[in-house]
Amino acid sequence: MLKLLLIANIEIYLIFQHIDWNLKSPQMSSDVEMEDRDKEPAINIPSTSGHRSGRRDAVQDRKNAPWIEKFRPQTLDEVAAHTEIIDTIKRLTARLPHLLFYGPPGTGKTTTVLAIARQIYGSAMQNMVLELNASDDRGIDVVRQEIQDFASTKTIFSNKFKLIILDECDAMTRDAQMALRRVMEKYTRNARFCLICNYVSKLIPAVQSRCTRFRFKPLQEEFVRPRLQHVVEQEGVKLGPGGMEALIALGSGDMRRSLNILQSCHMAFEKVDADAVYLCTGHPMPRDIEEVVRLLFNASFNDAFEGILELQVNKGIALADIVREVHPFILCMGLPIKVKIALVEHLADCEHRLASGTNEKLQLGGMVGAFVKAREEVVKAAQ
Ligand SMILES: Nc1ncnc2c1ncn2[C@@H]1O[C@H](COP(=O)(O)OP(=O)(O)O)[C@@H](O)[C@H]1O
Ligand SMILES: [Mg+2]
User: Fold this and answer.
1) What is d(CA 95, CA 52) in angstroms, rounded to the nearest whole number?
2) 131 and 184 share a domain?
3) 255 lines ligand 1 (CB under 6 A)
4) How far away, in angstroms, is 183 Cα from ligand 1 center?
5) What is the pLDDT of residues 264-277, one digit of tens each?
6) Same domain, 104 and 232
7) 102 lines ligand 1 (CB under 6 A)
């Protein structure tokens, strides 16, 4: 009797082993996978070690965390701006499509997807979310193994789909994107993808068309200001005159940049005022740029050249920064259009040449010369 039971047990064990092997085999060869497209996904038991989504939860000591992490919105309601996107996503969470978030950095793309994950899974987030970003290897092997392994398994304690976040996916190789295209389709029943990137044009059209796209635009001042004010109050930062305006201006809609500047200024200076912000970032002060513009439009060639050179040496300003900051002045000046175009063209060439490592003094001479010529044109046009 005992012998019989033992044999029966062994047989059951072998049958289970066989089933297990059958379920896992599709992952071993990509050819077999294609045929098994409609098979139920294999089952896995949630691991206690969790997936890479734990990265953010690992910021346990939020007190000492960088402010960009410490003040990262935890829920969709806390995310500033992007009201239409957030409203649409809130309606979609029950039947989430594949998502594609794109737009400039520091606008809340990663924050939004993490808030979605938190809303859908709550404390089970660690087991249900796989997050890969640019620091991870993202060649074709990762798509074939890591993403596929995660997407093809199903957690037995939850019937929800899994979420795979591919942050900064514009850095993925073309081959990996090709492979991803198929994986996305194959495991739609079991997993959703959220692709995040800065440049959507770097994604192959086939991947783009499988996702619902949302563009995150740079944050407007009205959203950045209250958010920064909140951090200032929470951290007891002493704000000086012009400090907030400088933080907003230098951030140019990138909340991460504004927060990072605020934190480094707070650590380096007693008071965060305009001078502290510009000094801290090594950015030329607005009054120095105004002086450069005054010299360019009023002084003789020699005086302008010497004056700007002296300013550069004393304040440590790079010519590339001057070129970038002078540009908006030209655009808003009432110059004849031909002169405006010639100046902008010259500045663009100058920036290009500086980027390829040419001599700064020579380029400065060229720039001053272009302005002297422009002034002559303005006088001619007026006569
Ligand atoms: N819309 C936003 N509302 C509130 N904070 C934001 C917003 N966008 C960015 N931030 C802040 O900037 C940091 C970086 O945002 P993140 O979502 O990682 O940007 P990215 O768009 O580059 O993924 C966040 O930790 C958060 O503190
Ligand atoms: Mg991001």
Assistant:
1) 24
2) yes
3) yes
4) 29
5) 999 999 999 999 99
6) no
7) no
Return the SS3 of 132.
Answer: strand
Q: Give the ligand with the smallest distance to the CA of 104.
A: 1
Distance 107 CA to ligand 1 centre (A): 5
Rounded distance between C-alpha atoms, residue 297 and residue 163, angstroms: 57
pLDDT for res 343 = 96
- The CA distances from residue 356 to 318, 363, 365, in Å, are 14, 12, 17
Tens digit of pLDDT for each residue in 65-118?
A: 899 999 999 999 999 999 999 999 999 887 889 999 999 999 999 999 999 999
pTM as predicted? 0.77
Average pLDDT over residues 126-141: 78
Which token pair is 98?
Answer: 């594949």
| Protein residues with C-beta less than 5 angstroms from the ion ligand 2 | 110
215 CA from centroid of ligand 2 (Å): 13
C-alpha distance from residue 69 to each of 82, 98, 312, 355 (Å): 20, 26, 36, 33
50 & 191 share domain: yes
